[in-house]
Structure formats: C-alpha cells, structure tokens
UniProtKB/TrEMBL annotation:
SUPFAM superfamilies: Periplasmic binding protein-like II. It comes from the Bacteria. This is ABC transporter substrate-binding protein. GO terms for biological process: peptide transport. Pfam families: SBP_bac_5 (PF00496). PANTHER family: MONOACYL PHOSPHATIDYLINOSITOL TETRAMANNOSIDE-BINDING PROTEIN LPQW-RELATED, PERIPLASMIC BINDING COMPONENT OF ABC TRANSPORTER. InterPro entries: Peptide/Ni-bd (IPR030678), SBP_5 (IPR039424), SBP_5_dom (IPR000914). One of its GO terms (cellular component) is periplasmic space. GO terms for molecular function: peptide transmembrane transporter activity. Residues 103-442 form the Solute-binding protein family domain.
Length: 520
C-alpha cells in the first residue's frame, strides 16, 4: 500500500450516484476464499499511519473497519460524504436529533424571516486549519455546494443563496418556500469547509479544512485512512487521540478482524457472521434503511407495468426477513420501515397497480453489491422466486464502488439496493423526490409517472409536520402502485463493538459512528 495526502476532488470529475444505473455484477459466492482473505486484510491494518498509539491519559487510537471504500474519491457532495460524518470529520450547520428533528451544530440557533428566508446564528468555532468559522466562510462553502455537479442529493430541485449577515449570522434564501431547510442543512453532503478547501479549478481538498473533532490527515487509496484528533474542536476535546480506518468490503474479513482484536469497531457485520461474535459485542440497531428491488421502468422488460406486477407478485419478503436476515430485519411494508415511527399508522394501500402478465421466457439482469453481505444472498433468493414465476434471471455482483458507475448509466433491468430513506436530509419527502420523480437525482428505477410527480409535489408543499407526513404516505401509495419499487426488508444494522470500546454512536440514520466520547 502506498500512502499520501488525500486526493483532491474535482466537482465534475466523478460520476455521482444520481442517475439510474448499471448492472454488471459477477456473482461471488462466500467460499473458503473469503476466509483466506481475512488474515491478509487484518495484517494490512496493523500500522497506525501517524500520531502516537496512545493518548497521555491512556486512551488508545480507535481502529475502525468500514464496509464501503470511497466511491467518489471522498467527495463531500456524494455518497462518500457519510463516511466523513461517521468518522467525525465534517459537520454542517445543523444535525439530526434522536427524533429526526433538526438540532444545533455549527449553527447555535435559527429563525425564519418570511416564507423563503432563514437566518442561522453561528456558534464560535474554527476550521481544522485554524481559521475562524465566519458567516462569509459558511456562505462561500454552501455556495460551492450549490455549484457542484451533480448537485448534492439534499439540494436536488432546490435553489438557495447564502450570504453573510453581520458578524454571526448567515442568511439563506431559497427560490421557493422550503419549510424543512434546517433539516436539509443537516445533510452530510452540505458540510461546511474552509476557504482552503476550494482550489481555483473548483477542486475540493478535505485535509485540514473541515470542522469536526477528527481531522483527516492521510488516505491510502481505497484501503485505509488516518485521522488525528483536532484539539480545538468547538464541542470539546475528543477522548480518542485519533482513528485508524481500514476499508474492508468483505464482511467475513471485517468480522474476523474484530474477533481477533485487530480492529475495535466493525461496521455492518454480516448476519451470517453475527453468531461468531460474543453477544456483548454485537449491537443491533433498528434503522431507517430499507432494502428494495428496483425495476427499470424506462427500458427493457420492466418498461411494461404488467411485468413489473408479475415480479412483485413473485417475491416472498417473509422468506428474506426470516431466512436471509435471520430475524435482523422486518418484511418490507413500504418505502419507510418501523424505525420511522409515524409511518405505519398513516400507510394506505398502493394505488392503481396493473394486472400481472405471464413472464415465461422473459430474460432479465439482476444486479447488487457485496459491501452489504446479505445482498448477494437476497439476489439469489430473488432469482429463485422470479424464475419460479417464469423469468430467466442473470445475477451480477460487484463491490459497490465498482458497481456504481454502471448502475448510474441504467444498464440493469433490476437492482437490489439498501437505501437509508432519511440519510440525505432527514425529510421523508425529499427521498421520494430524489428517488421516484421524473427529475429525481437518484431515480434508479427511472420512474416517470405524472400521478407520482403530482403526489410528491403536494407533499413538498405541505408545511405542517402532520400534514407533510400524511402527504408523504399518500405519495408512497402512488409510488408503490407503479411496482417500480418492491420493498423487501427493513434492516437492523449489526455493529461490532469491541469490549474495550465505550461511547460508539449507534445511529438509526447511519450518519455517525465515532464521536467525542468514543474511546478505548
């Protein structure tokens, strides 16, 4: 492995995750090779990469195994943004509290001025390069985000202008009224960075330019990264002196590294590996993540609604929840799962479903990725169920970073995707707009339906919280009625937490993992 500073990211240089996508995945079965891979990866982890191994107070550096290597060169604007928030590197003006409401972060408070303008009052803070977090710096950072191509998911369909307003305030004006702007600004893809992050050619450098309690100092390609504590963090001094990160896509290897004491925290422990860990170190957390079967409704066999209906009827979600996920999931009920507590009581039946056609001899390609280790098995079970209904199914499997660009080019007939419905903004309507409308930035199903667009637009216009939730569920009924998405399971994420670790952040929104109090 070679080491060096984090690569500089050009805003237009990566294919982000916001179009529909490719599917070429060579199915890889979990065999002895997975077990042989574990010691190789574990051995590669040993070097701390910088900083002392222990803090003066006796706390050691945290060793973290993550499932997803950077897919976009750690761009702050796309899918990799969540890696940065989970490790405590970046933060925005707001955050999400346990109830999914906007909470203070770099902004200590905010108020609304008219229908389209909000004023955010900043707390006293500094960037990791030592410069002050000023209204001008925040406004410039948000402006860069609005100019990114593709746009961050949190800003899909949203136009905003940010300007400094005095010594402590930032005034943000949206093109249209936006009642959930404080929630939107909690998105990992709207992190605030210092002026040094932005080069003359629109490049973004994350080394020493964020505001979180840990500073990213070194990245070794897609295999490892080093973070050191930022001692002048506004929220106080983190208890861990630093973090050594290893990206370990193979779930068996990741679990083995935890079990053998080579790492302290393991993200996304496979269900099949959970029993190999002592009960005290496997932590299951209900999340807002739903695993779904997305059917390409714009081209190929599933352009026909009747064949989408046939695929939906062929799927038995209870088998997936009970057998594949071994009870660490609930059978799919809708786009929102049980962790979204308000959804169940408001759910209505899908609207306008087509009558299923016979699928005999219809060939389809079903794609998924192996970073979430249950997905290949889900794909195999779906293959059996769909073939029983008459489809001829080819499964393709890749690691996510190698799948993404093809997936974004719309090359698959069907895709199994695990999607946290509230990770981008915390707003239940935003995920519907980005994933299922004609102009949606992450419309993997290529769905373009006037009734769906109308229902989502109505939900976007709702201001009152209860009214917005009701409208979101009405839009969900329209979306499910198209059969472009078949909810499979609502997942409980298993995190491996070593016995010496205290203060790991087990977040249902999957935005955080390591914080000020996380230590060993």
């Amino acid at each position: 492995m070679t080491s060096g500073r984090i690569p500089v990211v050009g805003r237009g240089s990566f294919t982000s995750r916001y179009r529909w996508g490719g599917r070429a995945i060579v199915l890889r079965i979990r065999l002895l090779a997975s077990l042989l891979l574990a010691p190789l990866l574990v051995g590669c982890f040993a070097s701390s990469g910088g900083g002392s191994s222990d803090d003066a107070s006796g706390g050691g550096r945290l060793r973290v195994g993550l499932a997803f290597p950077p897919a976009e060169n750690l761009s702050p604007y796309g899918a990799d943004a969540t890696i940065l928030t989970r490790l405590g590197v970046t933060e925005g003006l707001t955050s999400l509290d346990a109830n999914g409401a906007a909470a203070p972060a770099l902004a200590a408070s905010w108020r609304q001025e008219g229908a389209r303008t909000w004023v955010f009052t900043l707390r006293e803070a500094t960037f990791q390069d030592g410069t002050a977090v000023t209204p001008a710096a925040v406004a410039a950072s948000l402006t860069h985000a609005t100019e990114a191509e593709p746009a961050p998911a949190a800003l899909a369909g949203v136009g905003l202008t940010a300007k400094a307003a005095g010594d402590t305030d930032v005034r943000i004006t949206t093109d249209d009224p936006d009642s959930v702007l404080p929630l939107r600004l909690s998105s990992p893809s709207l992190a605030v960075l210092s002026a040094k992050a932005y080069g003359a050619d629109d490049r973004v450098d994350l080394v020493g330019t964020a505001t979180g309690p840990f500073e990213l100092t070194k990245v070794m390609g897609s295999t490892a990264a080093t973070l050191d504590r930022y001692d002048d963090y506004w929220g106080g001094r983190a208890q861990a002196p630093g973090i050594d990160v290893k990206f370990i896509p193979d779930g068996t290897a990741r679990t083995s590294a935890l079990r053998t004491g080579q790492i302290d925290l393991a993200e996304a422990v496979p269900v099949a590996q959970a029993a190999s860990l002592d009960q005290g170190i496997r932590k299951a957390t209900a999340t807002t993540r739903t695993t779904s079967l997305l059917l390409n409704s714009a081209s190929g066999p599933f352009e026909a609604a009747a064949l989408r209906a046939a695929a939906r009827q062929a799927v038995d979600t209870s088998v997936l929840a009970e057998d594949v996920y071994e009870g660490y999931a609930d059978a799919g009920a809708g786009i929102y799962g049980p962790a979204v507590a308000w959804a169940e009581g408001r759910r209505t039946a899908p609207l306008g479903r087509a009558e299923a056609a016979k699928a005999e001899g219809t060939s389809i390609t079903l794609a998924t990725y192996d970073n979430r280790p249950e997905l290949p098995e889900v794909a195999q079970v779906l293959k059996q169920q769909l073939e029983k209904a008459g489809f001829d199914v080819t499964v393709e499997l890749r690691e996510y970073s190698r799948l993404e660009s093809d997936a974004l080019d719309g090359k698959f007939d069907a895709l199994v995707l695990a999607r946290n419905t509230l990770v981008d903004t915390g707003d239940p309507v935003s995920v519907l707009a980005s994933d299922y409308t004609c102009d949606g930035g992450y419309n993997l199903a290529q769905l373009c339906d006037k009734d769906v667009d109308r229902a989502v637009a109505k939900a976007e216009d709702a201001v009152d919280t209860a009214e917005r939730q009701d409208a979101a569920m009405a839009a969900e009924a329209e979306i499910l009625g198209t059969d472009a998405v078949v909810p499979l399971v609502h997942q409980r994420i298993i995190t491996g937490v070593g016995t010496s670790v205290r203060g790991a952040l087990l977040d249902p929104y999957e935005r955080t993992l390591v914080g000020l109090g996380t230590r060993r």
